[in-house]
Design a protein that fits this description.
The chain has 25 helices and 18 strands. The protein is α+β, with helices and mostly antiparallel strands. A six-stranded antiparallel sheet has the order 8-11-6-2-16-15, covered by helices on one side. Strands 7-3-14-17-18 form a five-stranded antiparallel sheet, with helices on one face.
Length: 683
């Protein structure tokens, strides 16, 4: 076989490349720009045309021009889409363009290597159980491309079997390394992507929360160490909004500035100073990727996790955007005061209102101030006012004008949580009571199979915190007065899912909750994904220590070293046995075993020895199929025939026995090392 023939890319390999190209690129659709996607599609269809013999390979100058133009375009738009996204698009385009201009096996190896890089990046961005299984399959298929280069060109099934076998053999080693390697911080930080943000925003207007009620996406999950609070107590604080301009509620600049400062979590000494009788709730949260910084907690929440701050408004803030699932531990104190004493600057901020806005609402609030001089009584009277007047709760309220509070409070009297919370906070500020808007989520769906709570985007909610002397910031939720079922029993108790979060998501798994069987399947699959997040994605130092203690007892350096060595030996022996290098069930004839062990390796490479086939006949077929080992296998055959069928002296028997065993070992190593199937010819 000539060198050119050896470097030829077989149709077998081209078919594997078509499959792996689609499998690797499919989970990256969110990172690919439209024009990059168009180029990738053109490359795939062009390659299919090449495979079918309809078109020729593109000239090199065309591929080079496309690569240069793509790089220049990405450099110009990198500031808009983010440096990391631009780099990923560049790698994807290089992968696609190299794919259509491949001419020899070296090009295939370059494409396979780029494929492994893309798989690794995808795993950084997508770490759910189902995404991980997808990437595991992609890794196996990418490995099959390499296998197809060195195996029988027409045996698609054997390449798939060997690829799966290699991946399965690597899993035990991956598990051992996962268990014993220390949980070190990353050596580098992946730059945040300029991707779309999901969930709550730091700017809220009348229609914003209503948009989230159309989403069935998972926001986060929570697991309580003890008994969980009732549904009407599940107010998950996320963002505190103190500035109001008559149209929008936004974060105060002092809070925004504090986000870039190293604020420590709530220390034990501060807890003791603020109140030692506060009831404590311990729980853990798994936040879904949102590309935002805010985290979630009940009441006064604190976390000792690195990279999490407690801001002055008692909200939790992550130093880096949540661009992948984030597990963190939280402790909440539902009886702890927030800001027993209010600073002058904070009081001024939470009393500020745009001049001349909403005169009718101002007049109504001033009437409350006259009738109820006590601040707490006044706030309670304002809450009762919503039940005494014909207000109703709806996700499709009438439109409002510039004087939005007046339009809602005096005329329309229809709205959802943001409307009621904004009106309540406005009236409280008019009467001299500091008030602010808080956005987050209210309620949860319990998963009885795994014992955790799921919080979805449609559970987004807004309420008010008003400051009272000797009580600090106190929660007031006007929605609970208008639609108590919404707070006490959950979103689904008041709204029809088909007209809210299932309207744009008819195929969401939540649509099957009325079907007992399908709902049970949904819960079980969600439970599996939850345990994956807890035990794999959330496998920290503490969990690693507990697992090793269950295996080894007291964890010492000596025990850990012995455990690693034994594990590696067992894995190595298993792989060697599957490759035919060692055999545990052997006959007493060492010469027969030495000869048959080589025959077994050749059988695994597509050249099996028939039961009625003699050594000389088999030797001829080996020489024809594998010319590179023809001479070595011929020696092995002659040694075997000499020992088995000739009458030798003891000295001669020992000599040929040594030669046979030595030749057998050499052949087995040579077959595995050189992958002799590369040179196999069609027989």
């Amino acid at each position: 076989m000539t060198v050119k023939e050896q470097q030829r890319i077989s149709r077998h390999t081209l078919m594997w490349l078509l499959i792996t190209n689609i499998v690797i690129l499919s989970p990256l659709y969110e990172q690919v720009t439209l024009w990059s996607l168009a180029i990738c599609a053109i490359c795939i269809f062009w390659r299919i045309g090449i495979y079918l013999g309809r078109v020729a390979k593109p000239p090199k100058w065309l591929v080079t021009s496309l690569a240069f133009a793509s790089a220049m375009t990405l450099a110009m738009v990198a500031g808009q889409i983010g440096v990391l996204t631009a780099m990923v698009n560049l790698l994807i385009l290089g992968y696609a363009l190299k794919y259509i201009e491949m001419r020899n096996r070296r090009d295939v190896r370059a494409v396979v290597l780029a494929g492994y890089f893309l798989i690794a990046f995808t795993f950084i961005d997508q770490q759910s159980l189902f995404a991980s299984l997808h990437l595991l399959v992609a890794t196996m298929i990418n490995t099959c491309v390499l296998i197809s280069l060195y195996h029988d060109e027409g045996n698609f099934k054997n390449a798939a079997r060997l690829g799966a076998k290699i991946i399965v053999q690597s899993i035990p080693l991956a598990i051992i390394l996962f268990l014993v390697l220390p949980r070190l911080p990353p050596l580098w930080m992946v730059p945040p992507q300029n991707g779309p943000q999901t969930g709550l925003s730091d700017k809220v207007s009348f229609g914003d929360i209503g948009k989230l009620t159309r989403s069935s996406a998972l926001a986060f999950r929570a697991t309580f160490d003890g008994n969980a609070p009732s549904n009407d107590k599940l107010y998950w604080r996320a963002i505190v909004l103190e500035d109001y301009n008559g149209q929008d509620w936004t974060q105060n600049p002092r809070i925004i500035e504090a986000q870039s400062m190293q604020t420590a979590p709530l220390p034990t000494t501060e807890l003791a100073r603020l109140g030692v009788n506060s009831s404590r709730i311990d729980y853990q949260i798994i936040a879904e990727p949102s590309a935002q910084h805010w985290l979630f907690g009940l009441d006064v929440a604190t976390s000792q996790e690195p990279g999490i701050k407690r801001l002055a408004d008692f909200s939790l803030y992550a130093n880096r955007p949540i661009d992948q699932r984030r597990l963190y531990q939280v402790t909440s104190f539902n009886e702890l005061m927030m800001d027993r004493q209010l600073s002058d600057s904070s009081k001024t901020t939470n009393l500020a209102l745009p001049a001349g806005s909403n005169p009718k609402s101002r007049a109504l609030a001033q009437q409350f101030a006259i009738n109820y001089p006590d601040n707490e009584e006044r706030l309670n009277a304002m809450m009762r006012y919503f039940t005494q007047q014909p207000y109703y709760y709806t996700l499709q309220p009438p439109k409002v004008g510039r004087q939005q509070i007046d339009d809602f409070l005096i005329q329309n009297k229809a709205g959802f949580c943001v409307h009621y919370a904004s009106a309540f906070a406005f009236m409280a500020r008019v009467t001299g009571i500091p008030a602010r808007l808080v956005t987050g989520y209210q309620g949860a769906e319990f998963n009885p199979s795994a014992g955790y709570y799921s919080i979805y985007q449609y559970m987004a909610h807004a309420w008010v915190e008003a400051w009272l002397p000797d009580q600090g910031w106190v929660r007031f939720d006007p929605t609970a007065m208008i639609a108590p079922e919404r707070v006490e029993q959950g979103f689904d108790a008041f709204f029809d899912p088909e007209s809210t979060y299932l309207l744009d998501n008819p195929f969401s798994a939540l649509a099957y909750r009325d079907n007992a069987l399908l709902n049970q399947m949904r819960i079980q699959l969600a439970s599996v994904d939850y345990f994956w997040s807890v035990w794999v994605l959330g496998f920290n130092d503490q969990k690693q220590q507990r697992v090793l203690e269950e295996i080894l007892g007291e964890v010492t350096q000596t025990k850990l070293t012995i455990f690693i060595v034994i594990s590696l030996c067992v894995i190595g022996l298993s792989i060697a046995y599957s490759a035919g290098l060692i055999q545990f069930h052997r006959s007493s004839d060492k010469h027969l075993n030495a000869y048959y062990s080589v025959c077994k390796l050749l059988r695994q490479r597509g050249l099996a020895r028939a039961h009625n086939e003699g050594p000389l006949d088999y030797n001829k077929r080996v020489a024809a199929a594998f010319p590179d080992i023809a001479e070595d296998f011929d020696k092995l055959t002659q040694y075997f025939i000499t020992i088995k069928y000739q009458n030798l002296s003891k000295r001669g028997n020992r000599r040929f026995s040594r030669l046979l065993i030595k030749q057998s070992r050499w052949l087995k190593i040579n077959i595995i090392k050189q992958r002799l199937a590369l040179n196999k010819t069609n027989t």
